[in-house]
TrEMBL record:
NCBIfam families linked: quinone_pig3
Top-level taxon: Bacteria
GO molecular function: NADPH binding; oxidoreductase activity, acting on NAD(P)H
InterPro entries assigned to the protein according to its UniProt record, in alphabetical order: ADH-like_C (IPR013149), ADH-like_N (IPR013154), ER (IPR020843), GroES-like_sf (IPR011032), NAD(P)-bd_dom_sf (IPR036291), Quinone_OxRdtase_PIG3 (IPR014189)
Enoyl reductase (ER) domain segment(s): 22-335
Keyword Oxidoreductase found: yes
Keywords tagged on the record: NADP, Oxidoreductase
Residue spans crossing the bilayer: none
Descriptive protein name: Zinc-binding dehydrogenase
Length: 337
């Protein structure tokens, strides 16, 4: 640990964990040792931590932390670097960063790989900064790197007012895409259009496949970002134009899908997908570097900001999870540490 900060760093910290999987009520406060940064790592005094769907799934017992990761939930944070391990420039200490982490965000201090951190521009609120990494890394990798999205194309996003959905809208619009989203209410459809979506479809009152056909004049969309899977996959494929790409990032509607492979072949469709948390550090660093070069300038000039929902105190994490599970949120939920 960097010597000039050791005296200001306590030995223990508050964190919110759980003993057994269950509902939001299983969270309880615990006192843990402040972790020590190793080679290539920084210790961040956390100001805010983002709340994400994978945190909910982990709390329920279906998404355990990868080997070597903290069992404390929390995949994105923002705060001040207070110590650094070897192989990290000394001048990093004292800077404000946001970071993608494999766990440990629901705590007063959290370790991050230096290569997975991005600098927070002066004047940007740390709550907003904490709401960026998980969704920005996910959308960037899946829409632009795996999905090959390019200017002039049309993107269909399910869950348009979720953290991922709102980031997909904003990022896609910055790069010249037309965005169609699905939402579960007219109010959320209105919100999605306010955020920047070109078209929004209430999937509870309309057949989104037919609506996409109307919007695109029968052509279909070049790309679908799918968080539902299950029986949505076949319907998503019906929304795709020839040579279209289908990218799955979650299976909220079920892990099994039945599709017509002859349709895939005849229309030259591509199906892909990914998860992020367990990917190697070098991969995440490469994504961070590409984001830094191409997307982060929009953060620096203020044209890209996450859509913010509500902020909860760390000790009220159960309320934050309950809000996410209720599905009423629009944009990102964060914890104030």
């Amino acid at each position: 640990m960097t010597s000039n900060t050791e005296q200001s760093i306590p030995q223990t910290m508050l964190a919110m964990g759980f003993d057994q999987p269950g509902g939001p009520e299983v969270f309880r406060a615990e006192t843990l040792p402040v972790p020590q940064p190793g080679a290539g790592e920084v210790l961040i005094k956390v100001a805010f931590a983002g709340v994400n769907r994978p945190d909910v799934i982990q709390r329920k017992g279906f998404y355990p932390a990868p080997a070597g990761a903290s069992p404390i939930p929390g995949l994105e944070i923002a705060g001040e670097v207070v110590a650094a391990g070897s192989d990290v420039p000394a001048d990093v200490v004292g800077t404000r960063v946001c970071a993608l982490v494999t766990g440990g965000g629901y705590a007063e201090y959290c370790l991050a790989k230096h290569g997975h951190c991005l600098p927070v521009p002066w004047g940007m609120d740390l709550a907003q900064a904490a709401a960026l990494p998980e969704t920005l890394f996910t959308v960037w990798h899946n829409v632009f790197e795996r999905g090959w999205a390019s200017e002039g194309e049309t993107l269909l996003v399910h869950g348009g007012t979720s953290g991922i959905g709102t980031m997909a809208i904003k990022l896609a619009k910055l790069f010249g895409l037309t965005v169609i989203v699905t939402c579960g209410s007219d109010g959320k459809c209105d919100a999605a259009r306010t955020i920047g979506a070109d078209h929004s479809i209430n999937y509870k009152t309309n057949d989104f496949v037919e609506e996409v056909k109307k919007i695109t004049g029968g052509k279909g969309v070049e790309l679908v970002l799918d968080m539902v899977s299950g029986d949505y996959v076949a319907r998503n494929l019906a929304c795709l134009a020839e040579d279209g790409r289908h990218v799955t990032i979650a299976v909220l509607g079920g892990m099994q899908a039945e599709i017509n492979m002859a349709q895939v072949m005849s229309r030259r469709l591509m199906l892909t997908g990914s998860t992020l948390r367990a990917r190697p550090d070098a991969f995440k660093q490469a994504v961070a570097e590409e984001i830094s070069d191409i997307a982060w300038p929009f953060v620096e000039d203020g044209s890209l900001r996450p859509e913010m929902d509500q902020t909860f105190a760390l000790q009220d994490v159960a309320l934050a999870h309950a809000r996410m599970e209720a599905g009423d949120h629009i944009g990102k939920i964060v914890l104030k540490i």
